[in-house]
UniProtKB/TrEMBL annotation:
Active site: 92, 95, 118
Protein name: Cyanate hydratase
The family this protein is said to belong to: Belongs to the cyanase family.
Family matches, as SMART domains: Cyanate_lyase (SM01116)
Entry keyword set: Lyase
Biological source species: Cuscuta campestris
The keyword Transmembrane helix is assigned to this record: no
Function field: Catalyzes the reaction of cyanate with bicarbonate to produce ammonia and carbon dioxide.
Length: 166
C-alpha cells in the first residue's frame, strides 16, 4: 500500500470520526483552541497534530483511536488532488486570490518591503458574518508571518564561512 492511498484512507477515517461526533469544525476548534481551518487540515491529514493538542482533540472527538492520533502526529504528506480546482467553491477561492493577488502583493511590498507572506507560519480561519444588507457573508482570514527577501551576499553564505575557517 502506497503512502497516498494510506493517507487517503486515514483522512476518510478521520472525517468519519468527526461526522460521528455530530460536531462542526467551529465546535471542535472551540474545544481544542485551534482555528477551524487548522482542525479541517488535521482531519484531512494536511497538518501535524502536536502531542500537547492530542488530548484536547481526543476529548472533542471520542471516536478517534490511539492509532489515529499516532498517525496524525507524524509529519503529513502535504498534497492535493489537482481535480479539486473543479469544485466551484475551490475554483472561486483560487479565482479571488488570482484576481486580487497582484494588488495584495503591491500592498505587502508597500507596507513591509520586498518579501512574501509565509504559508508555513500561517493561520487561517473562515467566519460567517451578516453584511450591511443582512445577508450572510464569508470572511476568510489569512494571517501569515512576513518573510523579507534577503540580499544574497557571498560573505554570508555558510559554505564561504566554513571555507574561511579551514
Amino acid at each position: 500500500m502506497d503512502n497516498h492511498s494510506s493517507s487517503v484512507r486515514l483522512a476518510a477515517s478521520l472525517q468519519a470520526a468527526r461526522r460521528s461526533s455530530g460536531k462542526t469544525y467551529n465546535q471542535i476548534a472551540a474545544e481544542t483552541g485551534l482555528t477551524n481551518v487548522y482542525v479541517a487540515q488535521l482531519l484531512k491529514r494536511q497538518a501535524q497534530l502536536k502531542p500537547e493538542t492530542a488530548p484536547k482533540l481526543r476529548a472533542a472527538l471520542p471516536f478517534l483511536t490511539d492509532e489515529h492520533l499516532q498517525e496524525m502526529m507524524l509529519p503529513p504528506m502535504r498534497s492535493y488532488d489537482p481535480s479539486i480546482i473543479q469544485d466551484p467553491c475551490v475554483y472561486r477561492l483560487n479565482e479571488a486570490v488570482m484576481h486580487f493577488g497582484q494588488s495584495i502583493k503591491e500592498i505587502i511590498n508597500e507596507e513591509f518591503g520586498d518579501g512574501i507572506m509565509s504559508a508555513i507560519d500561517f493561520y487561517c480561519s473562515v467566519d460567517k458574518v451578516k453584511g450591511v444588507d443582512g445577508k450572510d457573508r464569508v470572511v476568510v482570514t489569512f494571517d501569515g508571518k512576513y518573510l523579507p527577501y534577503t540580499e544574497q551576499k557571498s560573505e554570508n553564505m555558510m559554505s564561504n564561512l566554513q571555507a574561511r575557517e579551514k
